[in-house]
């Protein structure tokens, strides 16, 4: 994650250039990486909602699709919101370590530092907020698509032991960031197919916002989405 004020401001600037959504420092989501069936005690906890064994991997990316934070220790049956609730990054946000906010989908609770879409927008301001939110948060879906295209083992699945799979996932994240820094593209002709891998087939249930998060989001919409510059 960006640490200095200058780094955070540059990250915020790049996110705002996507759809004019201010103060975003990261887009967050989880993706399921298939693993071989675990026969040991507790192996059933690796089975996700789609019925296959997986590790549920939490990622925060920036506007350049680089992975800034990754959590690989949770089994496939664990909900995205719990992974974030128990991660160190949440503690850092609550401690005021960052000047911006995260964008997540409705699988997360809305908090003062993690904004989610409105379930039923009723005003032009709310609709502008949702459109801008969706376009900006889509960076993490594109990140997953590019990451999995570069490293097909993330698409096919990991068939070694679980601890090796976790380390391999993190190694792929590091190499993905290095490839972006070096401006390495995926293989010719494959970039067009990235989007087909970017959307998770597992639908997250809607999580109600917290009271503080709801108030903060309402104030944010009233402050930043009154005009029609968010297209």
TrEMBL record:
<protein>
    <recommendedName>
        <fullName>DDE Tnp4 domain-containing protein</fullName>
    </recommendedName>
</protein>
<dbReference type="InterPro" id="IPR045249">
    <property type="entry name" value="HARBI1-like"/>
</dbReference>
<dbReference type="GO" id="GO:0005634">
    <property type="term" value="C:nucleus"/>
</dbReference>
<feature type="domain" description="DDE Tnp4">
    <location>
        <begin position="28"/>
        <end position="177"/>
    </location>
</feature>
<dbReference type="Pfam" id="PF13359">
    <property type="entry name" value="DDE_Tnp_4"/>
</dbReference>
<keyword id="KW-0378">Hydrolase</keyword>
<dbReference type="GO" id="GO:0016787">
    <property type="term" value="F:hydrolase activity"/>
</dbReference>
<keyword id="KW-0539">Nucleus</keyword>
<comment type="similarity">
    <text>Belongs to the HARBI1 family.</text>
</comment>
<dbReference type="InterPro" id="IPR027806">
    <property type="entry name" value="HARBI1_dom"/>
</dbReference>
<dbReference type="GO" id="GO:0004518">
    <property type="term" value="F:nuclease activity"/>
</dbReference>
<keyword id="KW-0540">Nuclease</keyword>
<dbReference type="GO" id="GO:0046872">
    <property type="term" value="F:metal ion binding"/>
</dbReference>
<keyword id="KW-0479">Metal-binding</keyword>
């Amino acid at each position: 994650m960006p640490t200095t004020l200058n780094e955070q401001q540059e990250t915020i600037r790049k996110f705002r250039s996507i759809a004019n959504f201010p103060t975003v420092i990261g887009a967050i989501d989880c993706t399921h990486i298939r693993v071989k069936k675990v026969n040991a005690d507790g192996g059933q906890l690796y089975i996700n909602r789609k019925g296959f064994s997986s590790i549920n991997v939490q990622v925060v990316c920036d506007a350049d699709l680089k992975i800034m934070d990754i959590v690989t220790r949770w089994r496939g049956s664990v909900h995205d919101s719990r992974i974030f609730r128990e991660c160190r990054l949440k503690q850092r946000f609550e401690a005021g370590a960052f000047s911006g906010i995260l964008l997540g989908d409705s699988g997360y609770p809305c908090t003062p530092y993690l904004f989610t879409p409105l379930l039923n927008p009723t005003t032009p301001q709310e609709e502008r907020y949702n459109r801008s939110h969706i376009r900006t948060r889509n960076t993490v879906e594109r990140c997953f698509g590019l990451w999995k295209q570069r490293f097909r083992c993330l698409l096919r699945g990991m068939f070694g032991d679980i601890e090796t799979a976790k380390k391999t996932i993190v190694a792929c994240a590091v190499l993905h960031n290095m490839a972006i820094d070096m401006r390495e593209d995926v293989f010719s002709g494959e970039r067009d197919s990235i989007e087909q891998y970017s959307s998770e087939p597992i639908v997250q249930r809607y999580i109600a916002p917290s009271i503080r998060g709801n108030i903060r989001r309402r104030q944010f919409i009233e402050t930043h989405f009154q005009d029609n510059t968010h297209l």
